[in-house]
Structure formats: C-alpha cells, structure tokens
Please model this.
Amino acid sequence: MVPDSRVHPRRGRSGERHPPYLRFARDRGFRLCTGCAVDELLVEGGRVTGVRVGARTIRADAVIDATGAWAGRLRPASVPLPLQPFRRHLFVSGPLANPWPREAPFVWVWRDELYARREGDALLLSPCDETAHPPGCPPADPTAAELLAVTLARHAPGLGHLTLRRSWACLRTFAPDRRPVVGPDPTLTGLYHVAALGGFGVTTSAAIAEVAVLAMAGKPADWLDLAEVSPARLCGAGEMPAAKAAHRQ
Model:
C-alpha cells in the first residue's frame, strides 16, 4: 500500500470494495494475473527469491501468501502452517412480501449461530455451519438446508415460510487459536503470510493490509500486538483447528 493512502467505497457491502481496490492498485502499477497457479516457491540460500508458475519463473524480493483456503501450503510440505479450511453454506431466500428496509442491520444469533441480512428483495441466510474441508470449490451439502430450517424455527419462526432461491458453499480458513496469521514466515526470509481471516477477509482487508505492511517493514502497530497474529506463534503447534461445535459438523 502507498503510505497515507486510503480507499473509501461509497457503500458498505464488502463485495463492493473489490472494484475501488483494483482501480487504486492498477493506477499505481499493480498487475493482476488470473489462472496462474503457483507450482513452487523458489528458495536460494534460505531466502525466497520468487515463484514458479508453469514454465515461467517470476523473481521477487518478497512473496506474500494470501491464498485463502490454500494458505500455508507454499512452505515445504514437511512444515506447513497448521491452517484448516471449513465449509460453510449460504442461502438467498425468495422475494419477501415486505422486504427489509435498506438500512436494516444484519442479525447474528451467537449461541446457535444464525446469520441473516437484507439482500435486495430477499434475505441472505446462513446456519453458520462448519465442516473441515480440503482447499477447492466445495459442493453444497443438501442437509445444510435442513439445519437452516431447524435454526429458523428456533430463533425466527416468522421466517419459517421462506422459500430458498439459491444456495452455495464457501470455505473459511482458521488457525488453531482462531486468530489471523499476518507477518513474516518464521523460517523462510522473504515469505510473508496474510491468512486465516475466517471469512472476514474483505471486511477486514483495509486493517489487515495495514498490519501486513507494518509487519513487513518490521514496525510496531499502535493498536495491535503483532506477536498475537505472527505466524511464528504456530511453529510447533502441530494441531489443526476443530469446528466450533459438534452440532455443526
């Protein structure tokens, strides 16, 4: 990021931050390449010097692993970071007879986990389920709709009549302590991690980017102890994070 720079989307939807972020970056020389899987991390003398993408070698002074569900796997296979992706389901309801007002807040029931917010003339809903899943594009599990119905009946019986227009599954990645992983790799100089944001990547992206820049520069943050999110805390952790509750397995 450019020092003292800020990006301010006009509206609050997290997905609406992508276009201004990309415009801001491209205006400053950033180049986005898609469909380029990184096959190998290049290391010389204990220092990262770039990546191999197919037959192409890309040299770099620093490599940032911010690969979501695949995060931590650029390190040697013998010492991956203990990060675990979990599958979660989302649903969009059919049109509401009385749509929620645009300024309506989102609803989140913490105990049994139910998430709901306005989505146009409908609602975006999730039973906040968690099932360990390998990196990739996860298929939707039909039983997730049953879990949503049970949760709605318990906490929002007035929404029990809703039809479901569409659904999909996504992956959210966590560290064993469920804190973000941001900062330099503890063993490979030149490798940095921005991972384990647990589904809040876009929402927290501006703050996390600031933390990453400070960590890369070796500077402290005035609002966060960087040791609390440092990848070094995971060395020797061994265990993989578990789902939060058995009823969401």
Remarks:
- The chain has three helices and twelve strands.
